[in-house]
C-alpha cells in the first residue's frame, strides 16, 4: 500500500467518525433522553430536575422519577417549554426566532446522509470516486456549519433568558460540540481526499507518459545486420 493510499484511508476514517458523531446528534432528546444540545438544570422550586433540548424535541426529566418527552418532530417551541416548566419570560421576538430556527434542524439528517455517502465513495480509491467523495464531504461540512450556527443562535436565546432567572441554570450539551467536531472532521476529510485525488491523477499521467516513451520507433538495422530469414 502506497503512501497516497494510506493518506486516502485516513480521510475515509475521518468521514466514518464524522458520520457516527452526526448520528448521535440526530438521536438527541427526545430520542435519547439524556443526550442534548442544550440542557437546563432546574432549581428546587421547579418541578423536575432537568430539561434536555435536542434535534427533534425535548424531555422534561425527573418528574416523579420519570421523564416526559415530546413527540419527535421538526420544529418546536423551546421558549414556550421553559415558560411552562420554569416560568421563564421571553419576548415575542425571542420566542419566534428560537422557534423558527428549530426548523433548520432538518439539516442535521441531511448533513448525516451526505457524510455517509462521502464515506461510501471513499471506500474505493478511484479518481472519480475520490473526487465525488471530496465534493460530498465539502457539502456535508457546509450544511453542518449552517445547522450548527442555527442551533447556537436558537439555543443561545434560551440559555441567556434562563440564566438571567434564578430558578434554573442552562448550559450547552454534548450535541453542539459533536456537531463542531464533525464539521472539522468533514472539512479535513474533504481536503485530504481531494489532495490524494489530485496526486493520483498526476501519477497516472506520469505513468502514461513513461509508457509512451518506452514504445518509441525501433532503430533501423543496417543491411549487414539483417540476417536471412529462415
From TrEMBL:
Record keywords, A-Z: Membrane, Transmembrane, Transmembrane helix
GO CC, one annotated term: plasma membrane
Record flagged with keyword ATP-binding: no
Annotated Pfam families: SUR7
InterPro entries: pH-response_reg_palI/RIM9 (IPR051380), SUR7/Rim9-like_fungi (IPR009571)
Sequence intervals crossing the membrane: 6-29, 106-127, 133-158, 170-195
Name of the protein this chain belongs to: Pali-domain-containing protein
Organism: Purpureocillium takamizusanense
Organism ancestry: Eukaryota, Fungi, Dikarya, Ascomycota, Pezizomycotina
Amino acid at each position: 500500500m502506497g503512501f497516497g493510499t494510506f493518506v486516502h484511508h485516513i480521510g475515509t476514517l475521518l468521514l466514518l467518525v464524522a458520520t457516527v458523531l452526526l448520528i448521535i446528534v440526530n438521536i438527541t432528546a427526545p430520542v435519547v433522553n439524556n443526550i442534548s444540545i442544550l440542557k437546563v438544570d432546574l432549581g428546587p422550586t421547579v418541578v423536575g430536575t432537568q430539561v434536555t433540548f435536542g434535534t427533534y424535541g425535548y424531555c422534561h426529566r425527573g418528574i416523579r422519577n420519570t421523564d416526559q418527552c415530546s413527540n419527535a418532530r421538526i420544529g418546536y417551541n423551546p421558549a414556550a417549554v421553559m415558560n411552562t416548566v420554569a416560568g421563564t419570560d421571553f419576548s415575542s421576538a425571542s420566542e419566534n426566532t428560537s422557534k423558527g430556527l428549530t426548523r433548520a434542524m432538518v439539516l442535521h439528517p441531511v448533513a448525516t446522509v451526505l457524510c455517509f455517502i462521502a464515506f461510501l465513495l471513499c471506500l474505493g480509491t478511484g479518481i472519480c470516486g475520490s473526487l465525488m467523495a471530496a465534493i460530498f464531504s465539502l457539502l456535508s461540512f457546509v450544511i453542518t456549519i449552517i445547522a450548527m450556527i442555527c442551533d447556537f443562535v436558537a439555543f443561545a436565546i434560551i440559555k441567556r433568558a434562563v440564566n438571567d432567572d434564578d430558578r434554573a441554570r442552562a448550559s450547552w450539551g454534548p450535541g453542539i460540540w459533536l456537531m463542531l467536531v464533525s464539521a472539522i472532521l468533514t472539512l479535513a476529510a474533504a481536503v485530504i481526499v481531494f489532495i490524494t485525488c489530485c496526486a493520483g491523477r498526476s501519477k497516472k499521467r506520469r505513468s502514461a507518459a513513461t509508457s509512451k516513451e518506452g514504445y518509441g520507433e525501433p532503430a533501423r538495422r543496417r543491411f549487414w545486420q539483417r540476417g536471412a530469414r529462415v
